[in-house]
Amino acid sequence: MSYKSNFKNVKGTRDILPEEAIKWKKTEDVIRGKMESYNFREVKFPTFESTDLFRKSTGESTDIVRKEMFTFEDMGGRSLTLKPEGTPSVVRMFLQHGLFNRGALQKFYYIERMFRQERPQKGRYREFRQFGAEVIGSGSAETDAQLVKSALDIFEELDIKGVELNINSIGCPKCRKDFVRELKSFLKEKLTGLCEDCNRRYSENPMRILDCKKDREKIKDAPLPSDFLCDGCKGHFEEFENRLDYLKIRFNIDNHLVRGLDYYTKTVFEFIHSDLGSQNEVGGGGRYDELIKFMGGEDTPASGYAVGIDRMMLLLPEKEEKLSVDIYLVTFDNESDLAGWKILNFLREKGFSCDKDPMRRSVKAQFREADRQNAKWVIIIGEDERKRGIVQLKNMDKGEQKEVSMNVDKIIKELKC
Ligand code: HAM
Question: Does this model's pTM top 0.90?
Answer without folding.
Answer: yes
